[in-house]
């Protein structure tokens, strides 16, 4: 099998079976402009697809949330993933472009903030020698680590100094937002996120960010286990391949969240 590689994982995984694409759970009957790319991609990959084909046009859910008890958690909108020249930017770019992830996330963030939701930014950052990663693994030394965190350390990515872990300009926190930095994958593990949510009376979490099949999924599962209402935003999440992103929503996300798109989140007054 060899070592895990974010770069290798971004390579096209192969053509998805057309019958599988017919069953994608996230294509709306009435797509907005934001979701046109998704619908077009599915139609192109599906034989005899049409706008009125009920097998093709499954629906995302319309989700209404109460702003006073809702937190929008934005994970790792940072230079290494989302900024041109970032270590993994080229790997994420196809997915970001296809679903207009940055544009949708910025619009949703502003709308949620204006509605009165709590905005929580969750960056990841490490010291220069990545001791935080080494200490996670049994053995507590460099040769004990493996997987995605080992990949980050090997590429010297997301360092606290030097700017690589900075927020991209369009997703920077503003006054009133909260920041909950982490050293691992799940936004709850080893952080004060749970305390922040409890202090602010939050019972609903809306998730967007990077990577769909890594930190988003880890946080989603934990939030579900903790009893929160969890909403995941298909067009505000991104993986290092389009296929990984789509298949995560197809096979996992409905088990632990309410998958939807940013234009289908309604903030009740």
User: What is the number of helical segments per DSSP (H or I, 4+ residues)?
Assistant: 11
Tally of strands: 8
Shape: globular
Can you write the helix and strand succession as a string?
Answer: HHHEEHHHEHHEHEHEHEE
Helix content: 25-40%
Strand order, largest beta sheet: 4-3-2-5-6-7
Uncertain runs: 11-58
**Largest sheet, described in full?**
6 strands, parallel
Structural class: alpha/beta
Backbone CA Rg: 18 Å
How much of the sequence is in beta strands? 5-15%
Mean pLDDT: 83
First-residue to last-residue Cα separation? 52 Å
Please characterize this protein's 3D structure.
The chain is α/β, with parallel strands linked by helices and 269 residues long. Helix content is 36%, strand content 14%. The strands form 2 sheets. Strands 4-3-2-5-6-7 form a 6-stranded parallel β-sheet, with helices on both faces. α10 (212-225) runs parallel beside α11. It is globular. The relative contact order is 0.21.
Strand and helix layout:
Elements: H1 6-9, H2 18-22, H3 36-45, E1 63-65, E2 70-75, H4 79-82, H5 89-99, H6 101-115, E3 118-122, H7 131-134, H8 147-154, E4 178-179, H9 193-199, E5 204-210, H10 212-225, E6 229-238, H11 242-256, E7 258-260, E8 265-267
Parallel strand pairs: 1-8, 2-3, 2-5, 3-4, 5-6, 6-7
Question: Summed up, what is this model?
Answer:
The protein is of the alpha/beta class and 269 residues long.
Name a few traits of the molecule.
two-stranded parallel ribbon, 269 residues, 11 helices, globular, alpha/beta, six-stranded parallel sheet
